[in-house]
Amino acid sequence: METLERNEKTIKVAVAGAKGRMGQEVVKMLIQDPTLEFVVAVDSKLHGVDVGEAIGGRTLGVQFVQSVEEAFQKYQPDVLVDFTTPQTVFQHMELSLQYKVRPVIGTTGLSTEQMEDLTRRYTEAKLGGIIAPNFAIGAILCMKFAAMAAKYMPHVEIIELHHDRKLDAPSGTALKTAELIAKSRAELAQGHPQEEESIPGARGAEYHGFRIHSVRLPGMVAHQEVLFGATGQTLSIRHDSINRESFMPGVNMAIKAAMNMDTLVYGLENLLD
């Protein structure tokens, strides 16, 4: 079977979560870009198995190892791409600090305290890294446009829709969008001051006076609509990821950008002009 050729002048990339749906797309993207070298994947249940064979493709000559630390010790990657879980990603980022590996993180759910701690430590170490709630360029533009609109139309609600296997709610994308909106408008308590929920949670989660609604259904990938209302008019800004391939240009951009950064950034919008 065909084996992936190696190039010594590339960015060496390790992937945590390569067997997952997002991870498999990352693998496909890496092997199609001659400037990136996919060197190792992490999965304790697939230790020693060729990654290509595990995901149903051709032999790649790249194996799974048992842990991120083993991957760092044996393969010295430049970048770790991590699409695992909030429970493991914080530990992986601490190891990245220890081994001077630049993280590109697509896992959401880290607490505010964890984010602040990691940002401080990465800045002190002058080590670049990126945590992005969403890697789809269209989703980043949706966030930016929503923040622009909120300055002029402050009455807003966010509806985010994802597949029913997503663990966190609201999504990291919705939270990031909400943060950007909150910075653009004066805080405003929306809705009728005497409104009551006959079913708790019917109005969604409250964030700085506006609401975020989470939908979880099979068949969906990642979708978000930001609705604005004003006298006599409404505005809707919507983004839809039809498949997970939509995230890969952003992941590719983040890997390359991380090599030239000396701090940890939150949000792919920081890489756009």
UniProtKB/TrEMBL annotation:
A molecular-function term among this protein's GO annotations: oxidoreductase activity, acting on CH or CH2 groups, NAD or NADP as acceptor
Keywords: Amino-acid biosynthesis, Cytoplasm, Diaminopimelate biosynthesis, Lysine biosynthesis, NAD, NADP, Oxidoreductase
Cell compartments where the protein resides: Cytoplasm
PROSITE patterns, per database record: DAPB
Binding positions for NAD(+) per the UniProt entry: G17, A18, K19, G20, R21, M22, E53, G106, T107, T108, A132, P133, N134, F135
EC code(s) of this entry: 1.17.1.8
Enzyme class (EC, first level): oxidoreductase
Domain Dihydrodipicolinate reductase C-terminal: 138-272
CDD domains with a match to the protein in the record: DHDPR_N (cd02274)
Catalysed reaction, written as an equation: (S)-2,3,4,5-tetrahydrodipicolinate + NAD(+) + H2O = (2S,4S)-4-hydroxy-2,3,4,5-tetrahydrodipicolinate + NADH + H(+); (S)-2,3,4,5-tetrahydrodipicolinate + NADP(+) + H2O = (2S,4S)-4-hydroxy-2,3,4,5-tetrahydrodipicolinate + NADPH + H(+)
Active site (UniProt): H162, K166
Residues holding NADP(+): R58
Subunit structure as annotated in this protein's UniProt entry: Homotetramer.
Name of the protein in question: 4-hydroxy-tetrahydrodipicolinate reductase
Organism for this UniProt entry: Brevibacillus fluminis
